[in-house]
Design brief:
There is one protein chain. The protein is of the alpha/beta class. It has one domain: Aldolase class I (TIM Barrel, Alpha-Beta Barrel), CATH 3.20.20.70. Helices cover about 40% and strands about 15% of the residues. It has an eight-stranded parallel beta barrel with strand order 1-2-3-4-5-6-7-8, surrounded by four helices. The protein is globular, with a radius of gyration of 20 Å.
Length: about 400
Amino acid sequence: MKNNISEIIDGIDWEKAGKLLANRDSGKVVEVISKDNPSLSDLALLLSPGAEKHIAQIREKAAILKKNRFGKTIKLYAPLYVSSYCVNDCAYCGFKVGRIETRRHLTEEEIIKEAEALNRSGIDSILVVSGEDPDFVDVAYLETTIRILRKYFSYISLEVQAFDTKSYRRLFNAGAHGLVIYQETYRKDLFNSLHKGPKCDYEFRIGAPARAAEAGFYNLGIGVLLGLDDWRKEAIRLAAHAFYLKKKFWNCSIQFSFPRIRNENCEFRIPAPVSEKELEQMILAFRMTFQESDISVSTRESCEFRDKIVMSAANVMSAASKVVPGAYSEEKVEAGLGQFKLSDTRTIAEITKRMLEIDLDPVFKDWDTAFGKTLNPKREVRNPKQARKE
């Protein structure tokens, strides 16, 4: 068995996979819908044109699987951007180095203000996000950030640059237990053409989730940026990565996100646009195949789509997201650089109200310290004000 994920991705039998992805025989899809544990080949059939006639049936099955695994809960979290400085020149990204808009890097005092603002809103699970610039965000800075945030939140995840195993271990020991890192595209030649700067190391980036797992991280979030290449092929590569991680790190949870570049939200010329219909098919197919995995839906998507997909497949969503550093605690944030444009701008109260209306139970707490004592026995007690909420 190959133990290198890059070799596994490169070794996909595209002659076989291509035939499955092009399938128009709806009968084969019906057979897959009845299976308890779909394989990678079955996923390809769920992604195929032949599945389009059965989307209602797939949606119904996915909703049953989601409810069986997660009940009526929908986990809410917020991204916390700590720096918009970046030395990479990624063609599609709002943070790319060539842009001249105002950049910002949060100090410890500003991080505390952001944490207090989010804490007051009820959020108890956060995703720390930053651009990649070692002059502003290095391991030491992230360690300090995590130790500050531990006082306010039960669960901290990271969406930052790729690190080596030693650095990930430092971040895990500081109190971060989740990692989200997008490969952006698994097509190596396309990846190399779209990225300039430290991020252009395809092999180092694709190995980041495995290194994080070796360092102790137990929640691994992976995904692609939809719109860069054929969505069906990217889905197969993403699934192959997930199957590899599930087998090698069986004690870790895999989370999927499906960020989509949208024409109305992006100046970048999208090579392979993905429609909302195709996005739904992909997410439903992953719920059918990875029944125990968290699936998150981005604020890049409309309120209507997000409300629809959480009833059938997704069980995690961000709420009241801000993509500019300092935006939670300051009433008037100086015009600055955002990573992307938001489509769902509802407040936490509005999202909570809507989730209850569609018979879902919003959950703000992703992790309880009682379950994590053996993993992180020195974890600090959080802000006493939060105790009244639990």
